Amino acid sequence: MTSLPRAVRHLAPLLPLMLLASPLPAQDEQAATAPKFVQTGNVTPWIYRGSDVPRDKEWLFGEMPNGLRYAVRKNGVPPQQVSIRVRIDAGSIHETDAEQGFAHLIEHMTFRESKYLADGAAIPTFQRLGATFGSDTNAETSPTQTVYKLDVPEATPAKLEEVFKLLSGMIQAPTLSAKGLAEDRPIVLAEKRERGAAAQRVAEESRKTIFAGQRLANRLPIGTEETLNAATAESVRAFHRRWYRPENTVVVVAGDADPRVLAGLVERYFGGWKGVGPHVKAPDFGDPKAPAGASRENPVGETQVLVEPDLPRSLTYAVMRPWRPVNDTIVYNEGLLLDSLAQAIINRRLESRARAGGSYLYAQVNQEDVSRTADATFVTFAPLTNDWKSALTDVRAVIADALAEPPTQEEIEREMAEFDVAFASSVEQRAVMAGSKLADDVVQAIDIRETVAAPETVLTVFRGMKDQFTPANVLAHTRSLFDGDVIRSVYVTPDGSEADPQALRSALLAPVKADGSARLTAKSISFGDLPAIGTPQQPSANGPLGLLDIQRVAFPNGTTALLWSNNAEPGRVTVKVRFGSGWRAFAPQDAVYAKLGESALVGSGVGELGQDELDRISNGRKMGFDFAIDDGVFTFTAQTRAADLADQLYLFAAKLATPRWDANPVLRAKAASKLAYESYATSPNGVLERDLQYQLYARDPRFATPDAAQLDTATPEGFRKVWEPLLKQGPVEVLIFGDFKTDEAIAALGRTFGALPQRAPIPAMALARGVKVASAGPPTVLHHRGDSNQAAAVIAWPSGAGVAGLPESRQLQILTDLFNNRLLDEMRERTGASYSPQVSSDWPEDIGSGGSISAVAMVRPEDVPAFFAATDEIARDLAANPPTADELARVTEPLKQSISRASTGNTFWLWQLEGASTDPQRVRLLRSLLNDYTQTTPQKMQALAAKYLAKQPFRLAVIPEGQQLATKVQRAAAGAR
User: Does the pLDDT at position 521 exceed 90?
Assistant: First the structure.
């Protein structure tokens, strides 16, 4: 059975009038080849062999004489899309020592050239078919598999025929030429380089310790420079011949088409495939084995202390067991559910201890079957100080209590309620499960050698075993999670004098006293016991918005709301609250509290409810509480359901009416920010995360990441002083889109947001604060302390902002995508200088300034000048010459398909209509959205480029400390200007 279902954003047919895509032509069943190898009737589908899990009857399974297996199903989410996955049962763990990185290298070369696709034609071809590179068209390599992914929009029968033909040629007959190898090797090496730095070193060294003696220990999918540079066309072909065989391949297809037609396409294009040479058995992945001298009484094996001066402390220990294939039966899954509940209880206790203040910032227990290599229980935590032994003792003490005594029935029921609402929501929303997610779930099940189950089956199994969730059973499963043949551990520290492997081993073996202080003892809390927000109010205005049956409601206190009740996404309601003035609210001296607010504002509490009480009151409910600071507003967001909508609105409104100001969340946010700050310097990417907004917005203090000294000045009292007035300011807009009853929602709004007192106006000083993009000038040069072969480069042009300019901002997206394609061709495909350069457009809507077009790339330090030269040349050419019609089609067709698919979901419309309850032009401008994004001319693109890209840009480079490149970079950039 697949793992616990997760709620995902799905696209369901709402049939908006102005964005209807072309209807899908009927499948020509007579022309389609009838499948011969579908497993129906009494034949057990291949994925269910050895299992008594009820079959998910929406899937059709087949197995062909050549050994290739497939799974297909009809799914109309989003409409007209078909998601195809081709899984090869070979990844980095199948490589020999000399082949490290070959599985991933072949993934790249498969897209380079193949039987039906000329050199470099794959990406343009799929773009012309409407697939966006990187999201609709992609592939991934793990230790155990390589998966090719293609989401085909507007999947007509002719297009599906073409796609299956192209994919079959890619998988069965890639060219794998010496020329292709020479072109793809630099791209893979660039990808490897960009993944480097301290965090990657820690991951690699940790893997060597945790999986010592097993193949997984030293086989990362990216490979090594030595093996990649030594690769030849023949050695790569040899790997392909060995593992790319029909009996190692599964094709999974889910989409808006007759499943028998899809099965017929699989059989037609993959049925004649034959492996070359004898079948090769997969290598033995190895078992975790205790080293000499270890025993059940002394199970600690390999330990390692890794010193990284710029990384925060973290400690992981793993209880290791051999992984073995299982029969995926109902009894087996009942055991998994008990395991999951046992972990949830421990994790809640660990979090409770962390919230109360103590020796660690966070801690978590997680059981995982890792790459069919080990069944392991991982314990990971972050010590707050150099006293890692106390933190380890405190974490082990909480776990020791869970191992010594059974949990309370209240604790069990609390977690059961969380499980039940998650499983029930999956059942409610099964009609809008995206085909891409369904296909990915099957691929994951195959990889871990398990089955797939319908959401109803998962819920039925869970509810049918409730009598098994006893304290004694949970205790037994808790103990089994920590019963293993060997314990391995890694401690990461900035100071090597703190510990050594022997000290770590001794600390893990030291006796520990069980700590039961974090056990749940408080009673549940009811919304019915909470005080009213205020006097309930009736709407002062209530009528249609004039679009899609959306209703606009206003209350006497100035609160406005947009409500769209529809059943396109059963069981799901999205709520978003907009208020205040966002980043404009903060004076420079208050910037530190803005950053802390992103982490601590919700946790600081609501009325009588602290963070623990907020958890309790939402137990067994589908509720959320996400907070964000946007350009011109603050937002609360949640995914909920009709049954919980009124209480969700109460929580949001109570945060504005009666905020609580607990100190611990602020102190914890400070500690986390201080621990994270120095780690930003470990890579150019980290420096950009820390400093790019600050530098791009002309060093505006509001956008600076607070350093340790600034954080030391912040106090819980200062936090309240800044945030308390901000929660009272500005009009409130509430958007509720989804499956709910309008009358009930309006009544709930009247009791909550409509009952709020009159809001204070936003101060004129805040309204006057804009965002200014930095002026052109000598490039800003920053430094990182990571690998000497890593650098980053950024170039940005100021653009526009505001609602009135939305049509132009949408055309600017077309121009940005044109720019992105050209930069990708130059920096990745032609020179291999950067793995994934990105060009993006930012157009703020709620304020009138701060828009920009920016390009970012991770490169070698010596390639920073080449990046600036390339971006300048592309910008000049776009402004001087119109793009070709084909180049434009490669951008507008994927945009059209992306918008057409996204427009079938509630969240898309919510995003587009934010602010529309008080700004009618947002509704008017929405009507032109599809045309604005997809209808243009080469001449219009040239004019837009001349308007924006002819300006002098802002430039920034991040290079390694100690390298004397700043002058070269500045000269090169100055020359490019």
Answer: no
